[in-house]
TrEMBL record:
Molecular function per GO: UDP-glucose 4-epimerase activity
Pfam families per UniProt: GDP_Man_Dehyd
Organism field: Pseudomonas schmalbachii
InterPro entries: NAD(P)-bd_dom, NAD(P)-bd_dom_sf, UDP_G4E
Keywords, comma-separated and alphabetical: Carbohydrate metabolism, Isomerase, NAD
Domain NAD(P)-binding, first and last residues per copy: 6-325
Record's protein name: UDP-glucose 4-epimerase
Family per record: Belongs to the NAD(P)-dependent epimerase/dehydratase family.
EC number of the protein: 5.1.3.2
Chemical reaction(s) catalysed: UDP-alpha-D-glucose = UDP-alpha-D-galactose
Amino acid sequence: MTETVLVTGGAGYIGSHMTLSLLEAGIQVVVLDNLCNSTAESLRRIERICGKAPVFIQGDIRNNAILDNIFTEHRIDAVLHFAGLKAVGESVQKPLDYYSNNVAGSLNLYQAMARAGVFHLVFSSSATVYGEPEQMPISENAPIGTPTNPYGRSKLMVEELLKDLAHSDPRWSIALLRYFNPIGAHESGLIGEDPNGIPNNLLPYISQVSIGKLKELAVFGNDYSTRDGTGIRDYIHVVDLADGHLKALQAISTQSGIHVWNLGTGTGYSVLEMIKAFEHASGVPVPYRIAPRRPGDIAECWADPSKAARELGWQAKRGLEEMMLDTWRWQSGNPQGYME
Ligand code: NAD
Ligand code: UFG
C-alpha cells in the first residue's frame, strides 16, 4: 500500500492539484520544489482546502544531499516527478537550463531513488513526444515523433532513459503519463495556474485578457485544415489529470515494468471554440485578433484515452463548461495569482 509519496514540483500548477488529491486520499506527501516557477502559498491554500498539509522542502532535484536526506528521513513508497521547466519558447533560448533541470535533474532523482531502494515512479511526460502525428486520435502505439524544441526533446530523452532503466532491473515500476492540454483549477477557486510573466498557453492568456490584465488574444493562425481553421487540442481538467495519476500510482504499486498512458479526454476543441466557451462561462467578452501561425505548432492533437480507461479504470469526467467555470473562478478570485 502507498502511504507516503514524494512529489517533486508539488508547489506548481499540476503538482499542487496532485498534492491536494493525494492528501484527500489519505496519502502523506513530501513536496520538494525549488520555487523557481511557483510559491509556497499554493501549499498553504491546499491546507485551507483539506485541512492537511504536505511536508515542504524547498530545494532542487539536482541537489544530492537534499534528496538523500529526504529518502532517509521519510519512508517514501513512490515518487511523482513533476519538477521541471516547461516553456517551449524559452527552451529554444535557454537549452542548457532545460537539459539541466529536465534531463540531468531527472537522472539525479532516479539515481537517488535507486540508492534509497525506491523503485516506484510516475513521470510527467507530454503528448509533445508524438511530434506531428499522422492519425487522430493518438494512441500510445502511435510512433514517437520528432519534437521541434529542446523542451520536447528533454521529455523524450527522459522517456527513453526510463525505458532503459525499467529493462535493466525488474524492481522498477514506472508510469509514463503523456498529458494532453491541462487546464482549469480546483473547484474551490483557491489553487490554479499562476504563470510568471506573459502566459504562453491559451487558457491562462484568455483568462488574463478577460480580467483586463492583457489587451487581446492573438489567435495563432486560422488557416489550418481544421473545422474553423484554428488549432485543435484535447483540453483536460487538471483535477481529472490528478485522478489519473492516483490510478496510475495504484497500478504501479502491484505491477512492475514500464507503462505508458495517455491522459486526455478524447475530444478536441478549436481555439475559437475555446474563446466562445470561456465567454459563455464567464459572461465576459474576450477580444482577439487573428495572427500568424506560431512556429512549431501542429494543426490538431487529441488523445485516444481508451488504454487508460481499460487498464486504469480512469476517464476524464469534467467537460468543457466545468473547465471554463473553474478557470474563471480561480482567475477572477485571484487576479494577481498567489500574490495577494
Ligand atoms: P509548473 O511550472 O507549474 O510546475 C513545475 C514545478 O517544478 C514548479 O513549482 C517549479 O518551481 C518546480 N521546479 C522546476 N525545476 C525544479 C528543480 N530543478 N528542482 C525542484 N523544483 C523544480 O508546471 P506544471 O504545468 O505544473 O507542469 C508539471 C510537469 O508536467 C512538468 O514536468 C511539465 O513539463 C509537465 N507537463 C505540463 C504540461 C502543461 O501544459 N502544463 C503538459 C505536459 C507536461
Ligand atoms: N494559441 C493561440 N494563442 C495563444 C496561445 C495559444 O492561438 O496566445 C493556440 C495555439 O496555437 C494552439 C492552442 O492555442 O493551437 C493551444 O496552445 P497552447 O500553447 O496552450 O498548448 P500547446 O498544445 O501548443 O502546448 C502544450 C503544452 C506544451 C506541450 C504541448 C504538446 O503547453 O508543453 O502541449 O503536448 F509540449
